[in-house]
Amino acid sequence: xxxxxxxxxxxxxxxxxxxxxxxxxxxxxxxxxxxxxxxxxxxxxxxxxxxxxxxxxxxxxxxxxxxxxxxxxxxxxxxxxxxxxxxxxxxxxxxxxxxxxxxxxxxxxxxxxxxxxxxxxxxxxxxxxxxxxxxxxxxxxxxxxxxxxxxxxxxxxxxxxxxxxxxxxxxxxxxxxxxxxxxxxxxxxxxxxxxxxxxxxxxxxxxxxxxxxxxxxxxxxxxxxxxxxxxxxxxxxxxxxxxxxxxxxxxxxxxxxxxxxxxxxxxxxxxxxxxxxxxxxxxxxxxxxxxxxxxxxxxxxxxxxxxxxxxxxxxxxxxxxxxxxxxxxxxxxxxxxxxxxxx
Length: 343
Fold this sequence. Notes:
Elements: H1 8-29, H2 34-37, H3 48-66, H4 83-102, E1 112-116, E2 122-126, H5 127-151, H6 163-169, H7 180-201, H8 206-209, H9 220-240, H10 255-274, E3 284-287, E4 295-298, H11 300-323, H12 333-342
Antiparallel strand pairs: 1-2, 3-4
Helix pairs in contact: 1-4, 1-5, 3-4, 3-5, 5-11, 7-10, 7-11, 9-10, 9-11
């Protein structure tokens, strides 16, 4: 098992993306009526207002832990929380986090921090792992928030909340100082999370796998296939160049075959990455997802995009698992870190 590695360049990029996606989401949420913000859903924290409040509370609480605040702040009850007030809290927390990161170096990220959570459980994790958790947690819950926005009839954030859209829309946002160590760590987490979801999907009937949903790719099977298709399609673009369009999800593939395909793609990707060095992440790659659409990006960008993309769609898959009566696996980065430390 490779050690979990983290570098500040990638951590800063993750938080730049977190803040960009947050502003896209809050721009839409700020224009919604109270009945839209408070409509009940069996996902996330139960409503859009509560889910957005949870996102801020998590960012605030983790930053307080990193700063060793004796009583980390959070807000469980979202009643009365306004979008303007919440957006201001998001911005203030992000500015404080940026200042905190400015005082850190790469050598600080492996340092361990012990904290006690709201359930009274005590854990110890490296700073870098906790920071990856916060960013990944945001991608998970923003996927739920986007679905809530769709369901209340509001316009979705444009062009979307994918990391790759930030780099297309605002490439100057950060210098994009990505590193292979953090990307390898994020991929290792994603492989673990995919395996957990697939293990539960393997217990389901075809009827459950093909049940229609107004989320993800429309069914659990197609959503899981889509996650793997994205990984395989990008790998082909990295190694063979552009040409193939993004595939349509195979609606007949079995979960056992899908598990094998996930493993094969991850193995090929890891072998490819093992031959790279950090400067290679700036090498330009091209891809044609749709006819007459050409993406031209540094190699590191689609690598980080894949990790966000997997988290986004796994959040949708978990909601589908819940509605078909399946077990919901815990997918937080801190759960993965805890299992690694116990192995």
